[in-house]
Structure formats: structure tokens, C-alpha cells
Design goal:
Strand content: 5-15%
Number of domains: 3
Distance between the termini: 41 Å
Radius of gyration: 25 Å
Mean pLDDT: 78
């Protein structure tokens, strides 16, 4: 059971490297092998993993309930037996080549609704095999009809993901499951020409990040009118990174209001913020399915975030920032500061009163350097990252001890999710919003829209700073 469980974690770790670092060939196969099930639930004859689907005697059936070592199969392996699903022999062979010997619980629960064309909101965490849970049924669906080999054909499947790392990995998983379909992966920071050449030759499955997909659509290079299946993966993460608007702009090209022929829509998210349901209502059919693959037992306790508001003049901001960080995060804690302009980001990062090491992140900094800066921050090379709201879009922001917003945020949804980056190991996270007296109304708007209440606190006093420094020294 343990091995089977570890295999489940392995497949998804391989599917989403940004959280695990597992390489391609490092998948640990499960202990159990595929069972020759006699009674198949749906389309059983379509895929019996390598064996002929001849009628089995009681003795053979009993033997089939054991793996090659004569050990009895786990319930998980029995439920996920390939013969329970309308899988083609080609797909079964490719799954076996990846070390997959049965479908995991996530894949078992989602296969039928996805294969039957239903819209779906699935709450699934990284590390459960969720990439295959939509890749396997979608590939089977596409391959069940005669192939469209036309040059320049528009994609039938669009998968939107928040980061280039995840885009690369999801595209690789699709490629590993099909030899007949053309799979492409588009993300920013790479040349347009290669992607346009791929569009000209024809694509069946397109995986990409919102920014680059939106560029191609707006430049009339990418036609989404033929898309039959849309997958939004890690929706909460996308929202977190400020992609909500871009995602909706892309979807507007693929959906017609009130049409019965809109694409099948599949949303995968570890948490389900309000935006997930808003998107569901807007783009999904009324009878969409909702599947919770996290469950109450394994669900993380709701992270509590304390929202504080500190009134200070803009001229005062640079001077008090160091004290705020010292008091609320300490000299060893990680802090991220969001501000509006590049000038402000540079000034705050260079500010002499900031006692912690800080680096800035904004639009003038090349993509490559942004990634290096973010990696340094994630690895603890420096403690404070100062980013403009725009540059923070599309960045996979790690968990931090403190989030500071230099003024009341315009994009309330992004603010809520950034605040969720605070508080690790069950501690209460802290999110601080600085405001000037004339911004009091803006602050109230954030409170109303986000359903939070800011606790008004003063600028830290000299006593607070001394106390925090001595506490730091004791650690």
C-alpha cells in the first residue's frame, strides 16, 4: 500500500517539478500489477492490459486478483485496473512504459465525467497524479475519432497553466501518452517564430501560460473557435499570480454566450476561491460536476491571516519599512513587498534604513534575471523581495512570513491570494497594508470586497523595534 501510495506521489511530482524536483526517469512504480477484472464497469473490452479478453474461470479470476508475486492486489489497484475503462491498447502500452500499472484514485474519479464530456470542477492537490487525470480521458476521446491531419489545423484541447515549468511538464505528460496527436507548449520568454511555425503545421493539444496564449490570439495567429476541451490547471495559483483577467480574455474567444456547442470546461484547483465558481457559472453548463479529491481528512486547516493596516505618509514609507519588517518578520524571516511603480521598488530596495538584504523585481529587469532573483529569494540568499504589482504577475511566489502592500490594492482578488502566501507550519500569517489618510475609502472598499477587517495599528515604536531585535538575538 505504501509503495502504491508513493508511486501516486511520484507521478504527480514528475508532472509538476516546481514543487518536487523529481526527474523524468525517477518515477517509482507501484507494487501492484494490473488485475484481469472479469466484470468491467464501463467499456471493459476496450482495454485489457496486454491480455486477451477471454472469459475467465473462477480460478483464473482469483489469480487475477493477485500481482506477479502472488500477493493480493490493493483495493486501489483493483479500482484502477485498466480494464475498467475504455482505454485503447496503445494508451495502455504507453502508460505501462511510464511505469503506470493502474489508474490512481484521482484518475478513477474523474475519468468517466471527463470522457463523457461533462464540465468539471475538481479540487485536487499537487502530488496526486492529477495531470494524467485529464490527459488520459482527453487523449482517448480525441483518438476515438478519425484523425485530422490537415496542415494548420486549430487545437481541439487548450490547457492553461500558471507557470512555464508546469506548462513544460504537462505538455511532456501529454506527449508521453500519444503517438498520434500533435502536442505543443507555448510560454513567454521564448521566440514567437517557432510557435507560429507549429501553428502553421497544425496542433491538436496546446498547453500554455495565459500571457503568451493571449498574445497569439490577439495577433490572430491562434484560432480558438475549434477548441472542444478547455482545462484550467492550478486555478487558485493562476489567480494568485494575477492572471484572472487574461484567462477570461482568452476564454471569451472560445465561448459563445448561450451556445450549446461551447467547449467542455475542466477546472483543477487545490483550493476553490470565489473566482473558481464565478468562472464555473460563466462558462460551464448548469449540470457541471464537482469532485473533491482532497477530502476533509487530508485538507490543510484553513490558513489564518491577520490583516493589519498602518497609516503613514508616502514620504515616511521608506523610513518605516525596515522597522515594520523587523517587528513583524524579524531579520531571518522572508518578506515580500508589493508596490505600484518601478521607481518606488528601486528606492525601497536601496533604502539605507532597511536593515535586511533586499532586491527589487520590476518590468525593466529581464525575464532571466527575474527568475534568478526569485530563486535567490526562495533559497534564502536575501530576506526581502520588493516587487511591482505588474512584475509579480506570472511569478510563482513562495510562502513567506510577511506580505506588505505599499498602498491599498486595486486588484482585490490578487491581494487576497498573495496574503495566503504568509504563515507557514500552521502559524498565523501577517499581511500589512500601508495607507495614507486620503486612501481610507480605498481601504474600506478592500474590506468590503474581500470580506476582511483590517486591524489599524500604528507605526512601530523604538521600543517595539528594540524588543523585536532582542527576540531575534535569542533565536
Amino acid at each position: 500500500r505504501q509503495k502504491a501510495k508513493r508511486r501516486g506521489e511520484g507521478e504527480a511530482a514528475q508532472a509538476e517539478p516546481e514543487e518536487s524536483g523529481l526527474g523524468d526517469g525517477e518515477v517509482e512504480p507501484p507494487l501492484a500489477k494490473k488485475a484481469k477484472k472479469v466484470a468491467a464497469k464501463s467499456g471493459g473490452g476496450a482495454g485489457t492490459a496486454g491480455e486477451a479478453p477471454s472469459p475467465a474461470s473462477d480460478g483464473e479470476a482469483a489469480a487475477a486478483e493477485r500481482d506477479g508475486h502472488g500477493e493480493e492486489l490493493t483495493e486501489e489497484a483493483k479500482e484502477g485496473a485498466f480494464s475498467n475503462f475504455p482505454l485503447s491498447q496503445n494508451t495502455i502500452n504507453l502508460l505501462k512504459a511510464r511505469g503506470v500499472k493502474y489508474l490512481f484514485p484521482v484518475q478513477v474519479k474523474t475519468f468517466e465525467p471527463i470522457y463523457d464530456g461533462k464540465d468539471l470542477i475538481a479540487q485536487a492537490r499537487t502530488g496526486t497524479g492529477k495531470t494524467f487525470s485529464f490527459a488520459v480521458p482527453l487523449i482517448e476521446k480525441l483518438q476515438s475519432v478519425s484523425p485530422d491531419g490537415r496542415k494548420g489545423r486549430a487545437p481541439k484541447v487548450l490547457v492553461l497553466v500558471p507557470t512555464r515549468e508546469l506548462a513544460t511538464q504537462v505538455a511532456k505528460d501529454f506527449k508521453n501518452l500519444t503517438r498520434k496527436l500533435s502536442v505543443a507548449c507555448f510560454y513567454g520568454g521564448t521566440p514567437y517564430k517557432e510557435q507560429i511555425d507549429l501553428l502553421k503545421s497544425g496542433i491538436d493539444i496546446l498547453v500554455g501560460t495565459p500571457g503568451r496564449i493571449k498574445d497569439h490570439v490577439q495577433n490572430s495567429k491562434l484560432d480558438l473557435s475549434s477548441v472542444k476541451h478547455v482545462v484550467l490547471d492550478e486555478v487558485d495559483h493562476m489567480l494568485d499570480m494575477g492572471f484572472a483577467e487574461q484567462v477570461e480574455e482568452i476564454l471569451a474567444f472560445a465561448y459563445k454566450k448561450g451556445s450549446e456547442n461551447n467547449p467542455q470546461t475542466l477546472l483543477f484547483s487545490a483550493t476553490c476561491p470565489r473566482w473558481v465558481y464565478d468562472v464555473g457559472k460563466k462558462y460551464m453548463k448548469d449540470n457541471y460536476e464537482q469532485i473533491d479529491l482532497i477530502g476533509k481528512k487530508t485538507q490543510r486547516t484553513a490558513m489564518t491571516v491577520e490583516h493589519l493596516a498602518i497609516q503613514c505618509r508616502s514620504s515616511q514609507r521608506a523610513g518605516v519599512l525596515g522597522d515594520i519588517i523587523q517587528v513583524y518578520s524579524g531579520s531571518r524571516g522572508r518578506t515580500i513587498v508589493f508596490c505600484e511603480t518601478k521607481k518606488e521598488a528601486n528606492e525601497l530596495a536601496m533604502n539605507a534604513s532597511l536593515k535586511q538584504d533586499a532586491q527589487s523585481l520590476h518590468g525593466d529587469i529581464p525575464q532571466k534575471q527575474r527568475e534568478i532573483t526569485l530563486k535567490g529569494f526562495r533559497n534564502g540568499v536575501f530576506e526581502v523581495l520588493i516587487a511591482t504589482n505588474v512584475a509579480a504577475r506570472g511569478l510563482d511566489i513562495p510562502e513567506v512570513d510577511l506580505v506588505i502592500q505599499c498602498s491599498p490594492p486595486k486588484d482585490v482578488d490578487s491581494y487576497i491570494h498573495r496574503s495566503g502566501r504568509t504563515g507557514r507550519a500552521g502559524r498565523t500569517g501577517i499581511c500589512i497594508c500601508l495607507f495614507q489618510r486620503r486612501e481610507e475609502d480605498l481601504l474600506k472598499q478592500v474590506e468590503n470586497k474581500a470580506g476582511i477587517t483590517f486591524k489599524r495599528v500604528g507605526v512601530p515604536s523604538a521600543t517595539d523595534v528594540i524588543k523585536a531585535s532582542s527576540n531575534d538575538a535569542k533565536k
